Amino acid sequence: MMRLLSHLLLTAMLCAPAPALAWWDYGHRTIAGIADKNISTTTKRQMNALFRVSKLLGTPQCKLKTISDASVWPDCIRQDRLRWNYTFPWHYQNIDICKPFDLKAACANGNCVSAQIDRNAALLKDKSRPAHVRLEALTFLVHFVGDMHMPLHIGDRGDRGGNDVSAAYGIIEGRLNLHSLWDGPMAERAISDGPDLVRRYHPDKKAEMAFGTTDFWAMQAWQVSRDHSYKTAEDAPSCGPPVTGRARVDNEEIRNLVPITRLQIQRAGLRLARLLDESLN
User: What is this structure's pTM?
Assistant: First the structure.
């Protein structure tokens, strides 16, 4: 009975119109949880002090008391389009997977996810800024590191990062597109399939995963999009003719994509921990 109820719940969720939010809540909160387990005590103390001024941001409809709240706050505030619609382009960066990697070409005037990660890390680090300004920077930093590691928030083939590609997840049709397939069911399967990702990692593993620049992290996500996201769903070369009909990720393909997706989530969490330590220590 529980299996049946779970299947019906997932089917109902997938049949409902879904916003283009990276990793949905489960993915973002998992990434934040990994970071929270791997930051220093000083970083955690500084971060918690910033959360105490959350009322100054004037967003009572969006809870902001913990790093988990912060991970989804930038999506929550998008409901208030009149105030926050200028932040919408900050969540992604459509880099053509069929051309050489060019991070800057897809970032007009800093309105892209990679530029906003660097900007908000700098604002958070600047202790001369008011606490509520640094808190806003903290929330955007936590969220955007997660966004950038979702492959279809970086890779694009003229289809808005897979938003225009109708897709099916296993036997579930619903109203999915390729972008939402990776945002939701793919991420949720990967997080749940294996040892708990939210844990304290060995320093060697942290060093292995957290190194590099924002540009390098973006290139890795772009490569996953090019080499796996499009190719697997369409069973065709990533830069071949667009698929006719609905793209499909079957059960065997889902199993093969789980470790790739888990790796992206681990990378995001440990890299976020590094940025928070650098900005708040």
Answer: 0.90
